[in-house]
What we know:
Chain A has 114 residues and is mainly beta. Chain A has no helices and 11 strands. Chain B has strands at residues 3-6, 11-14, 19-21, 23-26, 32-38, 44-50, 56-59, 62-65, 75-77, 86-93, 101-102, 106-111.
Amino acid sequence: NAGVTQTPKFQVLKTGQSMTLQCAQDMNHEYMSWYRQDPGMGLRLIHYSVGAGITDQGEVPNGYNVSRSTTEDFPLRLLSAAPSQTSVYFCASSKGTAIYNEQFFGPGTRLTVL
Amino acid sequence: GDSVTQMEGPVTLSEEAFLTINCTYTATGYPSLFWYVQYPGEGLQLLLKATKADDKGSNKGFEATYRKETTSFHLEKGSVQVSDSAVYFCALKVNRDDKIIFGKGTRLHILP
């Protein structure tokens, strides 16, 4: 199993550009989520999905879109990049929503918006 | 609301020292508690977990006991190694459909 994979590893954008961060998992996990990690802020939830065709907003959803057309993939779209979106982005998945289920994280995408 | 508070870092120790990273929580129900570790340049990975009061989670020499009376889940290791240098996150989950709530992380530096 590859686990949770993310591409790209690094990206530099100019303000106003759009892009998609890719996330895929091969563990047949129902639950997938996107976080951003900023210094001193810990991890903040952007969007999450409890299954194909279902998405919902997390703590900081503004400026981001997601879709879940398959169980495996959960891309994160930045509609019009802003410097405030400079961050490290992590995708995570878990088998389900039970309270004892651990989350598996991808290696992250480091995004810089100029 | 539900929250996790962990000691601020960075924590710097010499190799073979005893480690404690404090974590306390506030929760309306009976949460599961987790410690995740993030090594440099990587994503988070589960270190250990406990799902009910008085449970002890353990892995790689690390331990944490779920203390309901003090709402704590402190991480301990008897003898740290340089390879333990990382950021450690305490986390909780209260209800089935709720999200995992993470603390802000504690950076640990181990000196040889």
